[in-house]
Amino acid sequence: MVKGKLHSIETFGSVDGPGIRTVFFMQGCPARCLYCHNPDSWKMSDGRETDIDELLHRAKRGMPYYGNNGGVTFSGGEPMLQGEFLIEAMKRFKEVGINTAIDTSGTYYDKNTRGVIEQADLLLLDIKHTDSEKFTELTACKQDPLFKVIEDIKEFNKPIWIRQVIVPGINDSKEYIESLNEFIKDFKTVENIELLGYHKMAIDKYKKLGMEYKLDGVPEMGKEVMEELRALVRFPGKEMKKAC
Ligand code: SF4
Is residue 239 situated within a structural domain? Predict the structure, then answer.
């Protein structure tokens, strides 16, 4: 049986997809996002081995709480690194009626990615940056995998939640939100768009790990600016309200 590498498990999660969810944070990530909260999830060798039986057992314990729209989310790290494992796991979850979501950064694509997208009930897509150069500055990855992921999501017509972290000085502008609106305008299946304000909660983790925190000195996003930016977000297919 194919094995997986796990970072951690969160039960009763309520921020990684709809409803109450069991969240499996998979180990390994090719990106090096400047604001990453989980730098300890980057190296595959740091995770612990798991198998589908273990995850199924854990996921089943949450079933009384999932309701109509809860279930399981595979997050990370970057779960697409473990595509073969995810495909098999999601097939097993489906057999027992557990809904599955994949939380991906679009920084990785291989021969299994398409199959992962096909199996998932919902995709949470973190748009790191709409501009390819800035995307690379922020993640140390190329943007190409993101476009392949988007192509597959569209082809399989999968429901999608768009997530965007807003960082002062990087993308906290009206122009950026306009570029985001443009970037996602062809998605017909967007169910939710979340703008998440940058915060500094991860700094201590970097210190403990002896790692440099490259956004040191960048302030947290203010609530008011976040509200202003959220008001500018347009769901694909909907006209922007004209200013009077
Ligand atoms: S994709 Fe996620 S886990 Fe990977 S570096 Fe970026 S924020 Fe961290």
Answer: no
| Of 11, 171, 141, 129, the residue nearest 78 (C-alpha) | 141
**By residue range, what is the domain housing residue 10?**
4-230
Q: β-strand 21-26 against 71-75: which pairing, if any?
A: parallel
Q: Whose CA is nearest to atom 8 of ligand 1?
A: 36
What is the Cα–Cα distance from 81 to 71, expressed in whole angstroms?
Answer: 21
* Of the candidates 74, 63, 69, 66, the residue with the CA atom closest to the CA atom of residue 10: 74
Does 244 reside within a domain? Answer: no
Give the pLDDT of the chain (244 residues) as one tens digit per residue.
899 999 999 999 999 999 999 999 999 999 999 999 999 999 999 999 999 999 999 999 999 999 999 999 999 999 999 999 999 999 999 999 999 999 999 999 999 999 999 999 999 999 999 999 999 999 999 999 999 999 999 999 999 999 999 999 999 999 999 999 999 999 999 999 999 999 999 999 999 999 999 999 999 999 999 999 999 999 996 554 443 3
**Whether 218 contacts 180, CB under 8 Å:** no
Amino acid at site 63 = M
- Whether 156 maps to a domain, the answer reads yes
Q: Are 169 and 218 in contact (CB under 8 A)?
A: yes
CA pair distance 123, 224, nearest whole angstrom:
29
Task: For residue 203, give both structure tokens.
Answer: 């700094």
CA of 239 from ligand 1 middle (Å) equals 32
Query: Is 141 near ligand 1, meaning CB less than 6 Å away?
Result: no
Atom of ligand 1 nearest to the CA of 107: 1
Tell whether 213 is covered by a domain: yes
For residue 51, what are its two tokens?
A: 């198998």
